[in-house]
From TrEMBL:
Keywords: Leucine-rich repeat, Repeat. It comes from the Eukaryota. SMART domains: LRR_TYP. GO terms for cellular component: cytoplasm. It comes from Clarias magur (Asian catfish). InterPro entries: Leu-rich_rpt, Leu-rich_rpt_typical-subtyp, LRR_dom_sf, LRR_domain-containing. Transmembrane segments: none annotated. This is Leucine-rich repeat-containing protein 58-like.
């Protein structure tokens, strides 16, 4: 057996015995309810393509790195991917926030007439912050 297609079958787990199919090259388990991958799948050294999209995966076992011949790994539509993409999203601070942080962290003296009004308001609100690191 070189290809196994089990997509869209409401499968909730992958039996570890599946790893005994050592000649399997294509494994399609997409559109199911799978929450985890057994580490034993790492013994499937002939595997070229593993489709796991649209499941409930929140993590991958470290052993998946042993699938050195794997050319395609589809994980879209899993909580794992959503969390990973969210972690990669960079939300840089605004110029106002950077200016306020610099003034506060370096204890720079300033007069209200020297700064734009919105920066003064920002600095006033920062001085009332309950976090001890704000001061």
């Amino acid at each position: 057996l070189e290809m196994l297609y089990l997509g869209g079958n409401l499968i909730s787990f992958i039996p570890r015995q599946l790893a005994n199919l050592r000649c399997l090259r294509y494994l399609v388990l997409c559109d199911n309810c799978i929450q985890s991958i057994p580490p034993q799948l790492s013994r499937m050294h002939s595997l070229l393509s593993l489709s796991l999209h649209n499941n409930l995966l929140t993590f991958l076992p470290r052993e998946i790195l042993n699938l050195v011949h794997l050319q395609e790994l589809s994980l879209r539509g899993n909580p794992l991917v959503v969390r990973f993409v969210k972690d990669l999203t960079y939300d840089p601070p605004s110029l106002l926030e950077l200016a306020g942080r610099t003034i506060k962290s370096r204890n720079l003296p300033y007069h209200l007439s020297d700064l734009p009004g919105n920066l003064c308001n920002y600095l006033d609100s920062a001085s009332k912050c309950p976090n001890p690191k704000c001061a």
